[in-house]
Amino acid sequence: MEIMARLQSLQKVFKQSPLVTLSKEFPNHSELLRQLHAHRMEYDILEEKCNTPLKIVLMGEVKAGKSTLLNAFAGDAVSPVNVTEATASIIEIKHASEPRGIIKRKSGDDQEGTPEEIYGILGENRGNQDFFGDVSVVKLEFPLPGLKKIHLVDTPGLATITSNNEQTTLDYIQNSDVVLWVFSAHHLGQWDIEEQLANVKSFGKPIIAVINRLDEINGHAEEVEGFVEEHLGFFVEETFAVSAFQAFEGIRGGDESLLSNSRYPRLLSYLEENIEKQTEHVQEQSIINSMNALAEKERIQHQMVADTADFLLKSMERRKQEITYHNEAIKKKVKHELQSWIAMEFMDEEKREVMQLVDELGMMSGKGTYDSISERVNRYVSSEYITNILEKKFSDINELFYQEWNEAIRDIGDKIIMEEDEFRKNQERNYQDRDISMNLYLPEGENELKDGAVKGAAIGGAYGFAAATYAAVLGPSAAGITMGSALAAVMPPVLIIGAVTGIAAKLVFGNKKKKEYTLEVRKALDEVKANVSDVFLPNMQNQLDTESNRIAHNLFEKLCSFMSQGWTEKELIQLQQDLQGYTHSLYKWEQQSDTGIVRKTEQAAVN
Asked: Can you give the residue ranges of the Dynamin N-terminal domain (predicted)?
């Protein structure tokens, strides 16, 4: 399969992505769209690369000597070190019949001139972030034989790469065929660049490690090379320790001894044999590797979205079960509390007090004593007295109801956070600790991606929503959880009226009537308790059940809506199916492309 045809077939697959036309936002939606856009930008770069010469990009830390090495490649001082080390620009150098230069500006106000004039402008704006923030690239052309077959690109030192030009730098990495990563021999072991190397590796580019400034240290070249290969061998194809300064001076002064001591010829020989003499093959393989890496990043990104949808669906189901469990448990507990209170506590103290007074009645007890007891009974069974008792109990039950739901919500919130943390760890294990079919450009024998090799593919899934969910949904819900009704809703006035009607009239006095009087007093008090149990308790329980069910329903709806940003269960299931179909299309593309490569290789062998 021809490279351009293969690219076009990948573009057709990209257009099928269900994430491009989402009808509503998904968790981490802005990052999701940014990465989708980045993948399509990478595609455009690869398409353009099919018609451009081989390009070598130099990367590395500040003062590693990238510009000096670039000068050695070109055979002349095409990159003044005192200028480029102080800029945050990408400088592209290529061959032309006449020397010229141009500063491409994002604003469109380009500046042209000779290379010397261009470097002069860069030097004048040394440290000017506003100026360099508007520079997309600096292009220089020189009539030098060393630039006829390759383009050289000098990138800003790692310390100068800001968020404003990082994407531009990454674009040039995708536009390259080979990356020379330049280290300073002074700082070996002091760098923390695995993440940056993994990021470049994810583009499918071969990385060659160049340890510069070898002439300034006492260590042996082989020891220095071995150290880098031991620590960064996963990321780099080959390692060379050189002195770019000695190489450039040897080339410019015709000093063969100095050039030999620089060890630069060894690096140059490798590039000539493996890059320059195989330019077409290297560039084609670079594009193929980059396409495969791009397709894999696209697949990973979509699979992670599918994982997130699956996590949300399972989390919704677990929340439904948990909320149902807590709802039933709360209703049961409060109902038991009410039943126990009415059976064991309601009016019991008043009854003991009155019955003790009745027991103390004797032959000498007069009408005043009976009237006093009757007045006390009438007060205890009055609407006002019973209402006060029930209002107090209503308040206590309401507080219990509130506490139980708050504890339930805290329990649900804790489980959400634990599940999300486990989900995050699983994704890290799944996508960073296994081979993700990048075999075409991974070192032979490697079967694991290490330390963020898929950086740039992950959208974060549902990360970070749990704490926000608790603050935005669970917290306010908990603060507003009460039964939310007046006592009148559960205790109609007829209850009290029926309880006390005629009680006073039935109470008679007289020594010979004490037994009958005792029965009437007991009956009056028991009648109130029975009526409260028969009417108040069911009404209270119905109110409790209704309110608890309402809270459970609203809590589940708000929680799920917030977690999924408004996606319903049905919509998430459909998204999963669409994503599965898309990743299958990417897999078919990879299989068809691999078949095309095998046939082409076999045909070349026959010819």
From this structure: 56-213
